[in-house]
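Consortium newsletter contribution from the modelling node. Members have asked for a concrete example of what our holo predictions look like. Here is one, prepared for the pyridoxal-5'-phosphate complex that several groups have been discussing at recent meetings.
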Amino acid sequence: MDGPGLAATLPDDQRRRRPARLPSVSEPELARHFGRLARRTHNLQQGIYPLGSCTMKYNPAVNEEMAQLEGFAGCHPYQPEATIQGALELMWTLERWLGTITGMDAFSLQPAAGAHGEWTGLRMIQAWHAASGDLTRTEVVIPDSAHGTNPASAAQCGLAVVTVRSGADGTVDLEDLVRRLSPRTAAVMLTNPNTLGIFEREIATVARLAHAAGALLYYDGANLNALVGMARPGDMGFDIVHLNLHKTFSTPHGGGGPGAGPVGVRARLEPFLPTPRIEREGGGYRLDEDRPRSIGKVRSFYGNFGMLVRAYCYIRAYGDGIAQVAQDAVLTSRYLRHRLAPALGTALASDSFHEFVATTTRSTAPRLRALDLAKRMIDFGIYPPTVYFPTTVPEALMFEPTETESRAALDDLAEVVTAILDEAAADPERLHMAPEQAPVGRVDEVSAARHPEVRWWPADR
Ligand SMILES: *Cc1c(COP(=O)(O)O)cnc(C)c1O
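And here is the predicted structure:
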């Protein structure tokens, strides 16, 4: 709020002459406005959200309640350590649980998203090579099916991207990997199961080859929902991982709030973790800023603390039973895949885990595109799957139902897809017009991307 003190510090020509023209409405009007917006926007309270790669699972309400506790929500980052011992204990404990789940020795909770975790991990990899006096490692080997943030994070760190091909079964082509590795390789970056939902069975060989070439192995943990409690990236040979708390550990994401992308490392990389670290000492906790080899701070204060509380509650609620998340996530995905197989067919024969990629190219409906099918699903109250990703599959539709969907919801989705395909065969033009029921029809995506208009103006401007 600008009191007289603050206004006085502004140069005269930069002060408002008239009050800002902000809309002024009563509380009921405002409540209805947001109610209307909420109904116009698909969310998990309305229906299934099978957006592949994004793990849009239901976020339990108890997480929200715990994050709102005054002692957590009212914490201020400048409070003295002695007054935030509970918050520090929660973070310290969460770091250890994430270590147990992933097989890593130490974690930092600072990064604010998966992509931010990737960037943090790659900065540590650069620091590690520099500390060994090895300044020639300027490349990151990334599969052609990788999520776009992987090459983007490498580029942000000034590293060159070297693409490794996927074989016919969708996993990394080992012969191509051997060709791509060199004394310039800083890291190999993988997710497992990969973005096609397929488990990299040769992961131990990949790790051996990467390490023999002097590189480190980075785990993009966005797909941990397939493995949590069942298998650990540390045991597969990975050196660094990031997790997306807003995917696997049920904290809100997308329009729902900020994310969190903790990074975990093997012991030999611990000195490079962001500062400060939370240390347990005597019966209490303190923040250690004295870390000469750290890559430094990657975010203000301690990360998105509210997300950490939610993830803590989620893990605590499952306890040792957390493997059921992965088991049910894989079961629902395989069930849906088999339900859709007669209509759509899947992109690959290999057995998928928590997500799978279908394609419209084998459909008998003439000129049916993935985009048409996806847009028509909106008319049936179903959020569309991810489309045109991974880019290695033409007309891709990537489904990830998650473990929080019932068999009835999966059957309903399969029936909707079948009905749309029948409709496409009978009346091919209709699909190009979809969605018909949504507040906004088929948008011109090129104009929306090139000339976005995101400002609000009063009607009588
Ligand atoms: C979501 C995702 C990311 C990026 O995570 P953000 O939290 O959105 O930054 C990276 N890799 C894969 C495979 C993903 O699905």
